[in-house]
Design a protein that fits this description.
Layout (H helix, E strand, L loop, with lengths): L1 H14 L10 E3 L2 H10 L5 E3 L13 H4 L9 H6 L4 E5 L4 H9 L4 E4 L5 H14 L3 H21 L6 E4 L5 E3 L4 H8 L3 E2 L9 E3 L2 H7 L3 E4 L9 H4 L4 H6 L5 E3 L12 H15 L2
Parallel strand pairs: 1-2, 1-3, 3-4, 5-7, 5-9, 9-10
Antiparallel strand pairs: 6-8
InterPro entries: ABC_Transporter_SBP, ABC_transptr_periplasmic_BD
Keywords: Signal
Pfam families: Peripla_BP_2
Length: 276
């Protein structure tokens, strides 16, 4: 663990030099920046979070978010809180970004995370922005330790895995999910479907591809709507019973951040159960 902490400290030092003075009032407009902020900032630094911050399906920090105001995701109500820093996704609406710029509010953009390394870089950056690089070091070390446990559990390599979510959505080869699979020596079968960053696959395409395992967000056996019903189709149930399904909740993979340590441990546990 000491080696992981030392390596994490080096990442933080090289990628995210500490700010001269930490902001005292920070607003977040994005689900992923919400979670980074909640993990790394002091509660009194946070003045508002995105509309999805309390979503228990998507947000790993939904319970923590309950104590903070929820914003619309636009610039107007964020400005009313008079933050000295706004953190957001790089692809926020152009009008929102322009309005914040006109008001002279500092904006820190965070891109979509497509790999474990990018996730660690963002943790380091947010830790520096909020004035708590030591917290970033601890979270990065936890991810590195989970990576080591996963590699120790991955006794089989080269298995083809297809991650499938609602209505047949499949994250592509250039995605965080693909990076997690690669860390375990697994292959994202999405490339066989020609899916690079993400796209929908039909039931027929999935069955024809015949991945060794499927990765799903839930072990739920009943569907609440048509989107979930896709995953419970008899053909998929027959080909992929529970022992051939890896379950990693969506809240652990939709963003890159400290939650990746838990995602990696879930993957390690699933591989241990699946090992011959």
């Amino acid at each position: 663990m000491l080696a992981a902490v030392t390596a994490a400290a080096a990442v933080v030092a090289s990628l995210a030099p500490a700010a001269a003075e930490a902001p005292k009032r920070i607003a977040s407009l994005n689900l992923c920046t919400d979670q980074l902020l909640l993990a790394l900032a002091d509660p009194e630094q946070i003045v508002g979070l995105s509309p999805f911050a309390r979503d228990p399906v998507l947000s790993w920090t939904a319970a923590q978010a309950e104590r903070f105001p929820v914003l619309s995701g636009g610039a107007e109500d964020a400005m009313m809180l008079k933050p000295d820093l706004v953190v957001a996704g790089r692809f926020e609406r152009r009008a929102t970004r322009e309005l914040l710029a006109r008001r002279g509010l500092p904006l820190a953009d965070f891109d979509i995370v497509r790999s474990i390394d990018e996730a660690k870089q963002q943790i380091a950056r947010m830790g520096a922005l909020v004035g708590h690089p030591e917290r970033a070091v601890a979270h990065i070390a936890a991810i590195d330790a989970a990576l080591a446990r996963l590699r120790a559990a991955a006794s089989r390599s080269g298995l083809r895995v297809l991650a499938v979510s609602r209505r047949g959505w499949v994250p592509g080869a250039d995605s965080l999910t693909s990076s997690l699979l690669a860390a375990a020596g697994l292959v994202n079968a999405a490339s066989e479907l020609g899916i690079a960053t993400g796209g929908f696959a039909s039931l027929e395409e999935i069955v024809a591809t015949k991945p060794d395992l499927v990765l799903v967000a839930s072990a739920q056996e009943t569907a609440e709507d048509q989107g979930q019903a896709f995953l419970l189709h008899p053909a998929l149930q027959r080909l992929y019973p529970p022992e051939r399904r890896i379950v990693v909740p969506e809240m652990l993979t939709v963003c890159g951040g400290p939650m990746l340590a838990e995602a990696l441990d879930r993957l390690a546990a699933a591989l241990t159960r699946a090992a011959p």
